[in-house]
């Protein structure tokens, strides 16, 4: 049952702390390791592929070994360390706060809203209208539910299941898997742009890793909106979104709120509706929060069920 304890530690830290300051955050430290790759290379695809393989693996191995070492002394301490690793691999509270701030400023201080959007989305906000700023905030909250929470949570659970079946230590493997997914996503967020050939391998890897979490996030959002039909409506708009994954949670948000969500010049979701007003945008952020809590709860229940099955056999 120690993976359940780790999940409780991660969820408790998320509720109480949110996230540590950037300067003390291990993800920021990992970003410093990635930064030297962001330049012109003679063979950018080779460099990108090596970086995508080595850097996430190194982070995962380091965390897995740390949890395993602590576990030789205390199972509870190992669960606490694994929970800390999972907590540092996820993000929900800061995401909801940043999206809420952009929405709140969108009608009163558009300059502040445009500045705040930089914490959420890597897009030029200088010419965005208030409605487009709110759209970007809702889109980013929905997309980052998958990237920042569901992906590491699902990796933790799936790795725990695989480790239990294989007879391997569950906590080190599960914690390593969550950290690996977060590292892959960080690489993609820093390098995965069409203008950066070195970022092509990390982007392809991230697309593969995020296939299931994006769809699980869409399902969680549909439940939060109490609107499973939104999943069907989302399929109508997916062709306009370049990413094979992000359109799912964003599309469900557009359908669940019955608003237009758009990235100008790139995609439009629910084109027949109006851009979100403040009230609709806040409902969208609340739905992301509900979906996040549900994701934690379902992950915990899955681990509890795994523990029960393991004890039974």
Overview of this protein structure:
By secondary structure, the chain is mainly α. The chain has one domain. It is 71% helix and 2% strand. It has 13 helices and 2 strands. A two-stranded antiparallel ribbon has the order 1-2. β1 and β2 form a beta hairpin. α7 packs across α10. The longest helix is centred in the middle third of the chain and has 37 residues. The radius of gyration is 19 Å and the shape is globular. The mean pLDDT is 93.
- The helix-and-strand class reads mainly alpha
Please state how the strands of the largest beta sheet are arranged side by side.
1-2
* Largest beta-sheet details: 2 strands, antiparallel
- Give the SSE string: HHHHHHHHHHHHEEH
Provide the β-strand percentage band.
under 5%
| Overall number of strands | 2
User: What gap, in angstroms, lies between the N and C termini?
Assistant: 14 Å
Number of domains: 1
Mean pLDDT reading: 93
Structural key phrases:
single chain; 313 residues; mainly alpha; cell membrane; transmembrane; Probable cobalamin biosynthesis protein CobD; ABC-type vitamin B12 transporter activity; cobalamin biosynthesis
Summarize the topology:
Blueprint: H1 2-16, H2 26-34, H3 44-71, H4 75-89, H5 93-105, H6 110-117, H7 130-166, H8 170-191, H9 200-209, H10 211-224, H11 229-234, H12 247-257, E1 261-263, E2 267-269, H13 278-312
Antiparallel strand pairs: 1-2
Helix pairs in contact: 1-4, 1-13, 2-8, 3-4, 3-8, 3-9, 4-8, 5-6, 5-7, 5-13, 6-7, 7-8, 7-10, 7-12, 7-13, 8-9, 10-12, 10-13
